[in-house]
């Protein structure tokens, strides 16, 4: 395989949701060939038709990932899409994964992902930030659907630093608040489940705050919202979604905004909870 052909290829380690599809579509639009590793039970089977080559694995088969990428001449790869945290209890690690797990004491998300990325780097497979290919999909600062009410601004200002503290502990990226009360903190169940739990407790008009962890490695687990986020909020009549501008991916933006406007949900991109939008 020629050096030119290798340079035109990019690896994709795909999880769930539409993020892997979005990445594949944009990378190919940029003239790149996409070689994917997809996870059984997580990645949509339709990804097979959107990439040039694909390998299906189970969570924990790291040796297969490395062997496949080396065989395909992949020098650069990205991680796109999540893996349900509960998969850690179903994982059947291969020898390579067992060696990684033996080296690390904590089993937090960021620690595990960094260890996986380091293992790829040792094999000269560079893990890049997906945003290099998806800059136009990052949330911008501003009120996107309707002006925020005074009480909503106050809840964002109050809840934002708490969300950052939760993120700093590597617990989750989302909190749900109302009138100065924390209704839910995202943990292993994921954002949608946290929204449902908090929204039901808040009895309408809950404020959902989704942030990037202070220690976030932007190569993986970047905060992501999309139409499903809005649908979940609509279920429990939550009223506001505040995301971190420049550090949150917005999937299917046109549909996302259309559904938010139809539901009367305010969507706002903030640089921080005390930003000019909140004065």
Task: Describe this structure in a few short sentences.
This protein is α/β, with parallel strands linked by helices and 279 residues long.
Describe this structure in words.
The protein contains ten helices and 13 strands. It is globular, with a radius of gyration of 19 Å. The protein folds into two domains: 3-134, Rossmann fold (3-Layer(aba) Sandwich), CATH 3.40.50.20; 138-278, Cytidine Deaminase, domain 2 (3-Layer(aba) Sandwich). It is an alpha/beta fold and 279 residues long.
Helical content (DSSP H or I, runs of 4+): 25-40%
Assigned CATH superfamily of the largest domain? LpxI C-terminal catalytic domain
Q: Domains counted in the coordinates: how many? A: 2
Structural class, from helix and strand content?
alpha/beta
Overall geometric form:
globular
Taken as a percent bin, the fraction of beta residues is 15-25%
Number of strands: 13
Question: Would you identify the CATH architecture of the largest domain?
Answer: 3-Layer(aba) Sandwich
Radius of gyration: 19 Å
Q: What is the chain-wise order of helices and strands? A: HEHEEHEHHEHEHEEHEEHEEHE
Mean of pLDDT: 88
- The level-1 CATH class of the largest domain: Alpha Beta
Largest sheet, in brief, is: 6 strands, mixed
Strand order of the largest sheet: 6-13-11-9-7-8
Q: What name does CATH use for the topology of the largest domain?
A: Cytidine Deaminase, domain 2
Unreliable sequence segments? 1-6
Count every helix, treating DSSP H or I runs of 4 or more residues as helices: 10
